[in-house]
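Quick start: read one record
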Amino acid sequence: MEILFFNEINSTHKFLLSKIKNQEIKYPICVIADCQTEGVGSRGNEWISQKGNLFLSLCVDLKQLPKDLPLQSISIYFAYIFKEILSFKGSKIWIKWPNDFYIKDKKIGGVITVKTSHFIVCSIGLNILHAPENFDKLDIEIDRNEFVENFVEKIEKYISWKQVFSKYKIEFQKSKKFNFHYKSDKFSLRKAELDFDGSILIDGKKIYNLR
């Protein structure tokens, strides 16, 4: 997978979507920036992009993903692989359903994933040096470029969804003390049950991660 580094960019996410739209993409590809001026967050929000934190987006063809991976759970899949590398390095990072990175009870980053044409664009923001008010940052020091290379290498191993899910379903229990937003409403995860396809069941209602 080709890796492109930028000192500054409007958004790694917007950059790849633009390249796909203009048919200028060479996939698979990963884009990293030291600073973003128009970072993209969940639900259309802006992601505060302080210089020195980690901002990356990768683009893969759907055919390059494991055959058992449910499309609606791609964010969980990429997030868990990302998180697992950091855990091996000693971090206490965990994933709050469906797409947020946490240290203890504070958010330190997140994942958004978009399908466009036959491509998947997955974008990740992580506070590694700086954190806005009410957020936190990674609890270990990492070499950003080395870490991204490790992440790309692991993505290219095409780990099955079954393998990822078997570990994530244990970690999901940590999410139950939190709420999440779905459309315009907020729900508690206290009674949520995680299904194999990455969706959750709350009071008989099935809700998918569509981020």
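Residues 33 and 94 are 23 Å apart (CA to CA).
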